[in-house]
Design goal:
Elements lengths: L1 H15 L14 E4 L5 E4 L3 E6 L9 E6 L5 E5 L4 E5 L5 E5 L7 E6 L5 E5 L4 E5 L5 E5 L15 E6 L5 E5 L6 E4 L5 E5 L8 H9 L2 H6 L10 E4 L5 E4 L8 E4 L17 E6 L5 E5 L3 E5 L5 E6 L14 E6 L5 E5 L4 E7 L1 H14 L7 H10 L4 H13 L3 H10 L3 H44 L3 H11 L2 H7 L8 H10 L5 H21 L14 H25 L6 H11 L1 H13 L8 H27 L3 H46 L1
Antiparallel strand pairs: 1-2, 3-25, 4-5, 5-6, 6-7, 8-9, 9-10, 10-11, 12-13, 13-14, 14-15, 16-17, 17-18, 19-20, 20-21, 21-22, 23-24, 24-25
Helix pairs in contact: 4-5, 5-6, 6-7, 7-8, 10-12, 11-14, 11-16, 12-14, 12-15, 13-14, 13-17, 14-16, 15-16
Length: about 675
């Protein structure tokens, strides 16, 4: 009897909801997110497909789904040429536009429950009352500002709190069409920007405003979809581009999201959740969720693989979210609307995001702790934990969390607090130590002057310096004051050997590795996990030896006097500033914050320019060139380096093709034998 009661009870529960259940553990896709270092990694299932939105009306070709503030569901269907209103249980409440609409592609319901429909074929936007009566039609604006050749083919529509209507029209490169309630044209809003390039930069640099107007400029892509959030902010997506694909527009029409938010160029629709999260869906059925700041949270879903499983799509056209966080995705090819439900993991994440976005970092700490227990690589969680620790003045813990999150701004703030505290406690001790060392050194010098107590050490040091190899290595110090004379000694007096130069090349590589590992977190963009010794050897030495070889070949043709040996030795001795100061600068970078980044940047620029100047002097003195001959030699050397790289690339491609050809023959022979 008890078992029978349970079965009946479960059946009654199922009957209350118009969906087909699907087990959470059997989703036909994997869920991905971004790690702190920007890599796509697999994570826990974020949303589970719980079934098809069942209703008592015919759905043929759903183009757009809209859910109003009361969770009523509106479906624009080009197949039935109407918009249907449903309740949560799938009961049909009302049909809009029967006999009026031709090809409805977009629907929007304002706070007064007026229904706006974008009709592509009719080339109009229709406004219906809550009871389904046609209130007004908005056709092509007759304003001269709209333009005679501008098309008006409405695809999507949104309405703000003031009643202004925003229309996405096919091919409208001028931006979103904006009209008011009486149909007056207000102008274009939120025009897309073209991706910056060297050509556009040069045009902006050398042309006046009038000249720019007469130039043939690249036409920006037209936005393809639109939505509006609870605060009245407009969001758009632009398909077919990878620059500013998703835009969040302020009152001036400027984008508030990162320009490179995504490189996905096939997005179809977007919607905004109640905590400001952004949901998008692509033509391939992939669903992307971002937080309100544009940080990627999840990627899931996919294209139908002939298994006919919930969670996959054939031709997705629209995505919408209700007040419970459930996603509704329309599939035009299947004629269905699928429903996805957030998992407990996602619910916990959303709760933490809501608190974090409002500045309640400490209150959200429990949520992020639980998230990290489930997925320790979730980058956003580390940032939130860092903020929580920072607000509680636990700066050491905040520093570690910001490091794991690759959050350099937060890391800098936490480090500044730690450094400030350390200086307050130890600065006087450090000062006394330095004064003590200075007094001690002065006393030693005074006693040495009277009794020569340091003479034995000086004799040993002199003997070491006089050894030929040591003397050649220390010869780099002469370049600091007299680079011209130093190159004369290298060329004429054979002051330096190839062995000494080779040792310096090895020292340079060791310092290069030390820079990678010792540079402060704020100034390093390298992942130490991915360091490959052979790749680093190639990165450093291939350009150097390519330069030496190219310069020798060019100089031989242009009557340069330098031998290959002279160029080999002179090149490494030209890098004296790098050899002497690279490691100290890397060490100092660990004591700097972002506010003092100019110290690190300026220091690196100085040693780079200094080395370039010495290299210029080396080429001039080694080959006995004039100033302009040296410039010509350097330019031709760079060109020769590019030619050598191109030749090796062509050889590599040819050898790769020969290898594939021979391999295919061998495989064919093996198969036939």
């Amino acid at each position: 009897m008890r078992k029978t009661f349970i079965v009946v009870f479960c059946l009654l529960l199922i009957g209350l909801f118009p969906i087909h259940s699907s087990a959470a553990g059997s989703v036909p896709y994997k869920t991905e997110t971004l790690s702190a270092d920007g890599n796509v990694i697999e994570t826990q299932t974020a949303y589970v497909p719980i079934g098809i939105f069942e209703n008592d009306a015919e759905i043929v070709s759903p183009e757009h789904v809209f859910i109003d503030e009361n969770d009523y569901i509106y479906i624009a269907d080009s197949g039935t040429q109407s918009v249907t209103k449903f309740d949560e249980q799938g009961n049909e409440l009302l049909k809009f536009g029967e006999g009026i609409l031709q090809q409805p592609l977009g629907v929007f319901v304002n706070h007064e429950n007026d229904v706006y429909v974008a009709d592509y074929a009719a080339e109009k936007v229709f406004r219906f009352s809550e009871s389904g009566e046609l209130v007004m039609e908005y056709g092509r604006p007759d304003s001269p500002l709209f333009g005679k050749r501008t098309t008006f083919k409405p695809q999507k529509v949104s309405v703000d709190l003031r009643g202004n209507i925003y229309i996405i029209s096919e091919g409208s490169t001028n931006g979103i069409i904006q009209i008011n309630q009486d149909g007056s044209f207000l102008g274009f809003y939120g025009v897309n920007n073209s991706r910056p390039s060297l050509l556009t930069f040069l045009q902006d640099l050398i042309t006046t405003q009038n000249q720019k107007a007469n130039l043939f400029m690249k036409v920006p892509p037209a936005p393809t979809n639109i939505t509006i959030d609870e605060k009245g902010l407009i969001y758009t997506i632009t398909s077919g581009t990878d620059w500013e694909v998703i835009r969040k527009l302020n009152i001036a029409g400027s984008n508030m999201l990162p320009s490179a938010i995504t490189e996905v160029s096939n997005l179809r629709d977007l919607t905004i959740g109640h905590i400001g999260n952004i949901y998008t869906i692509g033509n391939d059925g992939k669903i992307y969720e971002y937080d309100r700041f544009g940080n990627l949270l999840f990627i899931f879903g996919g294209r139908e693989d002939e298994t006919n499983r919930n969670g996959l799509f054939m031709q997705p056209t629209s995505i919408e979210v209700d007040n419970l966080g459930r996603l509704y995705i329309a599939d035009k090819e299947k004629g269905t609307v699928q429903i996805f439900e957030p998992t407990d993991f996602t619910a916990k994440l959303h709760e933490g995001l809501a608190l974090y976005a409002e500045g309640f970092y400490v209150e959200s700490q429990d949520n992020w702790t639980e998230i990290l227990n489930l997925n320790s690589s979730f980058g956003l969680a580390h940032t939130a934990m860092g903020q929580a620790f920072y607000k509680q003045q636990q700066y050491d813990e905040a520093l570690e969390e910001f490091r794991l999150a690759e959050n350099k701004v937060g890391y800098s703030d936490a480090y500044w607090e730690i450094r400030q505290s350390w200086m307050q406690q130890n600065l006087s001790k450090v000062f006394l130590l330095l004064v003590g060392l200075f007094i001690l050194w002065s006393a030693v010098k005074f006693v040495d002057k009277k009794k020569g107590i340091l003479q034995p050490a000086k004799d040993i040091l002199t003997k070491v310096k006089n050894q030929k190899l040591i003397s050649e290595l220390l010869f780099i110090l002469k370049f600091m004051k007299h680079p011209i004379d130093s190159f004369y000694y290298i060329k004429r007096a054979n002051k330096v050997s190839v062995l000494a130069a080779t040792i310096l090349y090895i020292i340079l590589f060791i310092e290069y590795l030390m820079k990678i590992y010792w540079t402060g977190f704020l100034f390093s963009n390298r992942s130490l996990v991915d360091i490959n010794l052979f790749m680093e050897i190639g990165t450093l030495f291939v350009p150097i030896f390519l330069f030496i070889t190219a310069n020798y070949l060019v100089s031989t043709i242009t009557d340069g006097e330098g031998r290959f040996k002279d160029i080999y030795i002179g090149t490494i001795y030209s890098l004296v500033p790098v050899i002497l100061f690279l490691v100290p600068i890397a060490i100092v970078s660990n004591a700097l914050t972002i506010n003092e980044s100019f110290i690190y940047t300026f220091s690196m620029q100085i040693i780079t320019v200094w080395s370039a100047i010495i290299l210029f002097i080396m080429i001039q003195e080694i080959h006995n060139f004039t100033f302009f001959e040296t410039i010509r030699n350097i330019l031709v050397t760079i060109f020769t380096m590019l030619i050598i790289v191109l030749v090796f690339f062509v050889i590599y491609v040819l050898l790769d093709q020969v290898y594939d050809f021979v391999l295919s023959i061998i495989q064919e022979v093996i198969l036939r034998v």
